[in-house]
């Protein structure tokens, strides 16, 4: 693989001496990635340029919001911001975000992994001159994003600050023949960056992560192919094709439907899997760094730092970085805090809590069983009473009771008295 050489616009000084610390919010990452995705899928022409809003408190810069910008062609084909449009849009964002008050702190664009190029300088100088003299540049690297795992879990972006340096030539000479100082040139210097998340952003990121759990992947080539065949097919085959397409759509919908419980489970498992992958990647990175150290660093610790560095440079091994080693040592020292000192008591306590949870579950099952038995007894009593009433009514009612029908007995007359006569139709004396 070809090695990427740094751009001529990137400062030769590796570490920034300004002390600036950039705090990047996930909402900016979502906005930038969404803008780049839409620009790529729609095959739009022109550069990708956007503004960054945040706060500048002392040596800390927060990047909280972002929006895309319109660009115009200036003199000699230079790309610049549309001045009137940009001022109106920036004022609108300031009116919306008043508490806390946000201001323009930088801009973003796409660059190669080597750093900014010459076409990025006019926009940066325009922002420095008209809006913010300490504006930063967020450079997104599409090539690094496509590389995927080769980045060792690092975000495919770099944040730069602008510095003015003299162009050194012929060694360390920075003065011309007349004794005057050489002109200053605009350079970009990398800044340290950390990701900071607020509560509202956590909800948004969680919503985006859950939205991908039930997304159905439909091949666009299959759809376009089906449309082309339908336009060339005879009319007699339309009904069969419509029926088959409806069946495929129904099968796709049935396969892609997930219950809320499944979506929550998928999002939880996905988050845990990503966390485990990230942890594994960071551990592998630490192991590769420690194994690349020169063996003399462990076998001969009495050597001076300069001697060890010279030997490492001569043998092609990794240079010894004591701040990194101290950070690794501090991380290793914190590992015993995660492991209980008394394993037996911890196991006993966890077993006790497990027993309490199981006991509560059993009591709940017993309560539900008692309730079901009581309900069954109540229903059994209702059914038993109904059966007894039906049996008693069946013994008494052999026929219609006199007086319940409107039709009289034909040819007979019934006389009620103290007794009953021996014949029908004859009065009792």
Dominant shape: extended
Taking all residues together, what is the mean pLDDT? 75
Helix content: 40-55%
What series of H and E elements makes up the topology? Answer: EHEEEEHEHEHEEEHHHHHHHH
Strand segment count: 10
Radius of gyration: 42 Å
- Share in β-strands: 5-15%
Biggest sheet record? 8 strands, mixed
List the helices and strands and how they pair.
Elements: E1 21-24, H1 26-41, E2 49-57, E3 60-68, E4 71-73, E5 79-81, H2 83-96, E6 103-110, H3 121-130, E7 136-140, H4 142-147, E8 157-166, E9 184-190, E10 193-195, H5 199-211, H6 220-232, H7 238-256, H8 260-291, H9 296-299, H10 305-315, H11 322-338, H12 343-396
Parallel strand pairs: 1-3, 1-10, 6-7
Antiparallel strand pairs: 2-3, 2-6, 4-5, 7-8, 8-9
Helix pairs in contact: 5-8
What this model shows, in words?
By secondary structure, the chain is of the alpha/beta class. Helices cover 49% and strands 14% of the residues. The protein contains twelve helices and ten strands. The chain has helices spanning 26-41, 83-96, 121-130, 142-147, 199-211, 220-232, 238-256, 260-291, 296-299, 305-315, 322-338, 343-396; strands spanning 21-24, 49-57, 60-68, 71-73, 79-81, 103-110, 136-140, 157-166, 184-190, 193-195. The strands form two sheets. The protein has an eight-stranded mixed sheet with strand order 9-8-7-6-2-3-1-10. A two-stranded antiparallel sheet has the order 4-5. A hairpin with a 2-residue loop joins strand 2 and strand 3.
